[in-house]
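Reviewer 2 asked us to include a model.

Predict the structure of this chain.
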Amino acid sequence: MRDSMNVPIFVALRASEPLLEHAVRAYLESCPHFKLVPNEVLPGADVSVLLVDMMDDDWLKVLRHDAQRTADVPVPLVVMADQITETQLTLAVEYGLTRFVHRSSSSLEELVEAIVEASAGNCHVPDDLVSHLITELGRLQRRQNVTTLSRETGTSVREMEVLRMLAEGMNSFEIAQAMSYSERTVKGVIQDVMKRWKVRNRTEAVAYAIRAGII
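Predicted model (structure tokens):
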């Protein structure tokens, strides 16, 4: 590992609280294998560290901006936080997250270990967040697939969802409840599909959709 070879690790540090940033910066500066660098020269850092209580949209914008600045030479990102949603976690990974550390249950020594591991190119997300990440990535992939299929078949995403629920045996009222539409809207969607495909009833519409690979 880098620290065993006495090669300094250049770290760019940010925190949501000034006192927290001051304390962690002092601790890292006391470690001989770390060199703190200003965030203005982030492309020259080996690791970027973000310490927050709760991830929010403002911090995600900062991470996105950092990722754009370092697009040519990506800088591994270590996030230490307590609260992060599935979507935020997925975006953070997209913006360079390689290590996540739970703030309330982790020590500064564990943060140091995460920085060293990140600088070595090692990735790790805690087990309790892995399933969330997989779920969100799967949702995004399905949404992308649905969008692509909608474009290729000329069937709207709403129509595809209604047809899928019809295929599962749901009636107009149940579909309306699930999609937060009026029953009249759902019936209108079904009628439009039947007219466009020149089928006589809902069963034929579902069969057509299945054969065409729409659902």
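The chain has a mean pLDDT of 82. The beta strands are 9-15, 34-37, 47-51, 77-81, 97-102. We have added this to the supplementary material.
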